[in-house]
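Onboarding guide, step 5: your first structure request.
Type a short instruction followed by the sequence, for example:

Predict the 3D structure of this protein.
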Amino acid sequence: MRKRFSCAPKKCMIAITAASISMSIAAGLIAAPIVAYAENYDLVNGSVNVNSDENGERTVTQDTNTHNETTETVITCSDAGGTSNTISIESHGEGENAAKVTIENVNIDTESSGGAAISTSGNGDVVIEINGTNTVQSGDNHAGIEKGNDGNLTIQNEEITSGDKLTATGGENGAGIGGGQRYVNNPATGGGFSMTTIDGSANDITISGGDITATGGKYAAGIGGGYNGDADHITISGGDIIATGGLTGAGIGGGYEGTASEIIISGSATVSAAGGSGGNENLTIAPIGGAGTSFSITYGAGAAIGNGSHGTMQSGQTPAPGTPVEPDTSALYTSGKINIYPVGTTADDIENNRVAPISTTEGTITPPSTGTGSGEGTGTPTTPPSAPTNTASPGSTTIPEQITEPTSQTHVSSDHSSNAGAPNNVAAPQTGAMNATIITDMINTVFRKNPNADSIDLDFGKNICFSPALMRALYEKPNVAKNCRFIHNGEVYILHIPKADTGSTKFETCLDTLSKEPKGFAGFMRINQIFSEMGTTISKE
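The system replies with structure tokens like these:
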């Protein structure tokens, strides 16, 4: 539950609030939630910086006022005319210790004043929750929401209500959501300087819900790279998303001369994308006090999903459009789809159905169903051992060597949940190997309800094929122990995955070994062999 603060007219407010849940594992005791409310911040008094350390504890600064917080930051704005004050989020925590910020009815416009409306930095993860109607417009060389943190940037809409929306627009060279343009000033002969563009790349962006419109500025993608910026590992797993590129930029992917890789569209996401148009532009370059020289540049169009294009000064030539990149839709539900629109289609045209898509891809996976109407589950709780006994060594004949075809459902529950251990069961789709995105969503759903749980129990039935992506998800999202329960030939086995150092070379070596398996995945016995150095064990229940 989040406390709501009323705002006087023409005021922009920031409320620091959170609910921290304390759990005592001993004797199965679960303490009541402890809720802390903190001071409000008014954006009209200045921009706000949120600095979150590796433990998720936050320092919120506005002008010379600094407050230490351990809570989520909720930013609201009741001034319909908006503000040029900005939000910056620096994070050094990962997973559950990510910097978490909610924007609610925020209207920020820095097109004239310059800078990014919302920016992230640090080596940790950032989570932005959207509530209400939010609009952000950045100045030149900046993205609407500028991703500068090394970890993952997640934009979500967990508290779904009608009308929750985010419109993010980049300035020239800036993506709607993603990268801007960065420069380095170098010494030059004659006592001056030269300015070199590095890139405006944006990696590790996840959008899991909300009504989101992302429009790239000139030379930038809607979601992805800014000028000369690549885009890697962009995941959209929910929401109604419209992404359009600026001149040469992709709708989702690279900016000017930028490439795209690992674009994943899954779940119930509805994605509409259009690449930015090409065209001609005349530029004049003149020395100080001298006559100018004019150049004509012809630009190519960006892909709807994929690479950006580039420009040429060769007369009579038009650069090839950006190369499309096929997104991974293996986990796209039948309720989700991807609409590709003609080059140059605007977000407004898409939203108002003035232009028809040129192609539509619909999902093929049946959406998961919850075990009960409330989603909390009513069954008798079961608790697999946290320290498995009867551990099988590699090659043991008492545990099957390999199982390659999934035949049943996957369920997820928390070992120490707020409903006294009752499982929260969700059915998984039947695919050749369990899909990492779907399983991750299931795990995170349970963990959000039980943030202090020391382990999570997973009931996979007979669905027991593991890919490298799934193993990474099982270790990292979040990094707590997992007990994976399986049934084979009527007997129950548990694969125990301990909390581990996933940043180690040893972990990456295990993933590389798994990737070289036939079909790129393996059954649970082979997984235990590959990841034994990471502490995995198998036991009979």
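Each response can be followed by summary notes, for example: Residues 1-38, 184-198, 370-434 have pLDDT under 50 and may be disordered.
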